[in-house]
Amino acid sequence: MSEDPKKAATTGQDKMLTSPEQQALINEMRRLIGPQSGKASIFCSDACISRYLRARNWNVKKAAKMLKVTLKWREEYKPEEIRWEDVAHEAETGKIYRSNYIDKHGRTVLVMRPGRQNSKSTKGQIKYLVYCMENAIFNLPPEQEQMVWLIDFQGFNMSHISIKVTRETAHVLQEHYPERLGLAILYNAPKFFEPFFTMVKPILETKTYNKVKFAYSDDQNTKKIMEDLFDFDQLESAFGGNDDTGFDINKYADRMKEDDKKIPAFWTRENTPSSVPTHVPSLDSTRLDSNTDDCSDNEKLDSFPDLVVDTGIINPNQKSLVNEGERKASAD
């Protein structure tokens, strides 16, 4: 759906810039960060620089500062060098994995099941998350740059809540993977999770926060939203789909090992300029509600592109795919 450009400044949307204007800012960013070589040169494509600019609302100085911090982090952390063997122990329970299907916008899907947490190590959990992020990005189609998070709360209890892990997750994702999360769907989150989510909202940027949507299996509107986003024959039954296959750690390990073999070639390829995708999914591009054509982003309860924790400050009940009051009413 389209948005009135006059509303852009007040709804948290990016500035409305023409392609020549965007390219000029990208060129200015390149001047500020200076010449890059090796993996940094490959990383700093036009599309990448554009994401950092959008994350900072096209403020070149702020975006350049942000990108420089990421380049330093990547040089030290070396996320592209993490391999399956380094994180396999974190993956055993299926708490995070890349699904074998994409959504109808071509976005890769990370399935998360916090109720299957099997580690007390914040460092280990973040390392595995980074590995999953890198793998999801690696498997994106050329015209797409965002992913979807499907978060299943089955088996989740208070013992799985960690402010420390949440804070570190938000930091890594917002600072080093800007504009990579298109939508995060929190499926059947328990009632006690909502106050926690409200409590951590200060560490989430507005864009990230606005990408987080609550969904409930007993709500008809949720079912319609999921049908708009996914092929139900591929979507797992835990999210209302028809696939009952389930997670198989051995098959998943084989998939990841095959991907790992391809990674070195990607980071040693000849560095050719990468153009900015012609279509960048936004809250407008994923219809989650049939009555959102004339709504601002803060009023849309239905669309969503990425969630690794981007930023937004709102009552979860007001920013959910399904309004809690309506959900209770329909249940009655």
TrEMBL record:
GO molecular function terms attached to this record: phosphatidylinositol transfer activity
SUPFAM superfamilies according to UniProt: CRAL/TRIO domain (SSF52087), CRAL/TRIO N-terminal domain (SSF46938)
Biased composition (Polar residues): 269-289
Pfam families from the UniProt entry: CRAL_TRIO, CRAL_TRIO_N
Residue span of region Disordered: 269-299
InterPro entries: CRAL-TRIO_dom (IPR001251), CRAL-TRIO_dom_sf (IPR036865), CRAL/TRIO_N_dom (IPR011074), CRAL/TRIO_N_dom_sf (IPR036273), PI_Transfer_CRAL-TRIO (IPR052578)
Domain (CRAL-TRIO): residue spans on this chain: 84-247
Protein name: CRAL-TRIO domain-containing protein
Lineage: Eukaryota, Viridiplantae, Streptophyta, Embryophyta, Tracheophyta
